[in-house]
Structure prediction request, 257 residues.
Amino acid sequence: MSGDPYPIIALWVHPRSMSTAIERIMRERGDLDCLHEPFMYYYYVGLGKKSLPLSELHIGKPETFADIIADIEQRALSAPVFFKDMGYYVLPEIYRYPCLASRLRHLILIRDPQKSILSYFRLDPGVTREEIGLKAQWDLYEWLSRNSETPPFIIEAETVQKDPIGTMTRAWKHMGLPVINSAFEWTADQIPEDWQSVSGWHQAVIASTEIRQVDIDDKDKTREQFERVASLNPVLSEFLEYHQPFYDKLKAASANQ
Prediction:
């Protein structure tokens, strides 16, 4: 195929940040070749960091950083590409590829760490501090901002829940994508193929048909839930103390977009 390659859009996330629901919206657009966490294979298989619970990672997927990049670039010869991935999967290796900062269009997703930590711990009590992921989100945001003309566009999960159409419309305009309103509803029986190996992590979004409106403003309730679980599992308080400052920095940066 001749001509310039198509755009590549990266949604950088931390675990339990509502990222798969946003990925579902991007898939429902119908105009993007979508990938689900391709760098998961680099982190958990290629590097062998740990065994990922609730998952059956397929043999044969690209496992090296270079091979994953090559696969994404090859796809972008045929269509615009979207992938969502964890920031901590790619650090520090991505620093060796400064061209990716300007080649890709970047979104950063964040969610209240009290909510995301609790959600992760319920699924994987062996979660590590690195896997909480918010420090990596900040480190990636800083690196991308230094190495590209435009800083990544930050999305807050709570804002998506309050106003999914308005929030995603702003993100799409920042990415240079047309608005497609039909992307906000889907049927629960249409499960993307590359979710199947990690379906244990995504039961709620698999069963859903849209972004669900939930009570997201009751901070006292969230704090009480976190403190109750953390009182029995003190490591969660340590995780929160470590990652909260990076969440706060990203939230402040989002207010200045």
User: Anything to note?
Assistant: Confidence is low (pLDDT under 50) at residues 199-203.
